[in-house]
């Protein structure tokens, strides 16, 4: 699964730390998510989508091997 | 994040305070560098089978140096408090690292046990098993904290 979290976060002029604090996770979690090292739970994905004002499927995209 | 089976974050510091001195003292005691003869006391033994001509002492009072018992208990409590207390920002990603570190420790611990079974004999095996009592928890602690250190070093990309 790939994601557009980093692009959308930067577009909204948020740092990883700011996004993390607003959602209540560590900055490392946002970093791991953006670099595709961690696939978030549905709850976390929904929180990120809500905060970035996007639909979940606009942020997280399935790939062929998923 | 709500967690089950984890201690609050404040317990981590207490864990380190208990763990570090007890680990050092336990290793020194195992190597006979220190001895605590003043801890020779009478204790209740639930199971103490006869050994080298001694009589059975189960369900009775026996004399024993309790330094190793005290240090072993402190080691277990200290290790658990350090390894199983929440980190400052406990979240699902940290939970994943915790689980993977525990799994890694379990496999390495099993490998150590297999190695000891196959290559260590006599009294050496007994000694190895004494160390092995603590290796699972200590391996988990070390691996988990290495992972935490590794992710703390990732670049921020905070443009």
How do the strands and helices of this protein lay out in sequence?
The complex is a heterodimer of chains A (66) and B (159).
Chain A: E1 2-3, H1 5-11, H2 16-23, H3 27-34, H4 42-51, H5 56-59, E2 60-61
Antiparallel strand pairs in A: 1-2
Helix pairs in contact in A: 2-3
Chain B: H1 10-30, E1 40-45, E2 60-65, H2 67-83, H3 92-119, H4 123-152
Antiparallel strand pairs in B: 1-2
Brief digest:
Chain A: One of its GO terms (molecular function) is DNA binding. Chain A has 5 helices and 2 strands. Chain A is mostly helical and 66 residues long.
How does this structure look, described?
The complex is a heterodimer of chains A (about 70) and B (about 160). Chain A has about 70 residues and is mostly helical. Chain A has a single domain, classed as Orthogonal Bundle (434 Repressor (Amino-terminal Domain)), CATH 1.10.260. Chain A contains five helices and two strands, in the order βαααααβ. A two-stranded antiparallel ribbon of chain A has the order 1-2. The longest helix of chain A is centred in the last third of the chain and has 10 residues. The termini of chain A are close together. The model of chain A has no long low-confidence stretch (mean pLDDT about 95). With about 160 residues, chain B is mainly α. Chain B has two domains: about 90 residues, no CATH class; about 70 residues, no CATH class. In chain B, about 60% of the residues lie in helices and about 10% in strands. Chain B has a two-stranded antiparallel ribbon with strand order 1-2. In chain B, helix 2 runs parallel beside helix 4. Chain B is elongated and about 65 Å long. Chains A and B meet through helix 2 and helix 3 of A and helix 3 of B.
Q: What is the residue-mean pLDDT of chain B, rounded to a whole number?
A: 93
What is the overall silhouette of chain A? globular
Beta percentage of chain B is: 5-15%
Helix- and strand-based class of chain B?
A: mainly alpha
Give the beta-strand count of chain A. 2
* Morphology of chain B: elongated
Distance linking N and C termini of chain A = 7 Å
Radius of gyration of chain A: 11 Å
Give the largest interface pair and sizes: A-B, 21 and 14 residues
Adjacency order of strands in the biggest sheet of chain B: 1-2
Q: How many structural domains does the protein architecture of chain B include?
A: 2
Rg of chain B (C-alpha, Å): 20 Å
Report the order of strands and helices of chain B: HEEHHH
| Fraction of residues in β-strands of chain A | 5-15%
Low-confidence sequence ranges of chain A: none
Summed up, the helix count of chain B is 4
Q: What count of helical segments of chain A does DSSP give?
A: 5
The helix fraction of chain A, in percent, is 55-70%
Count of all domains of chain A: 1
Keywords (chain B): Membrane, Transmembrane, Transmembrane helix
Transmembrane segments (chain B): 104-123, 129-146
Domain HTH cro/C1-type (chain A): 5-59
Pfam family, one (chain A): HTH_3
